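Let's sit down with a protein and look at its sequence and fold side by side. We need material for that, and I hope you will provide a protein of your own picking. Once you have written the record down, we can walk along the chain together.

***
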Amino acid sequence: MIKSIKVLFIVASITALSACGWHFQNGTLIPQELRTLTFESPDPYSEISVAMRNQLQANNIQLVNLTQGIPVLRINKFRTNDEVASVFKRGREAEKVLMLEVEASIRLANGESHPITAKVNRTFFDNSRAALAKSSEREVIWNDMREQAARQLITKMVALEKQVKNK
């Protein structure tokens, strides 16, 4: 009897949450001072720049051209690397660790700069017998890693709230 009540309660709560249109609100934790930014990058059309712009817009951050008194988010550099993690018996690469590191900085309206970094690692099983499929899979993994790094940078922007408020 108690078990069926628990199941009924879980099903009812899941139904209520999914039926009412409840969802997380993006960008609610970002300080008001950082809701309007100028975004700079050494290569504005690189994949990491596009991923960062997409995440900023998904979090309701307005991007404007460089003007006085507006904070600036700048991607200083990013590095990608892959290292062999394991090998097959015949000496061919079996598994790789893909690494992405992004270094950025936020320059506040008062001129103060705060560095932020994001690091993402993934493992990738590299089977040379299915090279075309693995190439596509590898690109999907890299895209996902760029999106995750962009989300990490935005999370670190939220952590700047105390420093922004104190200044």
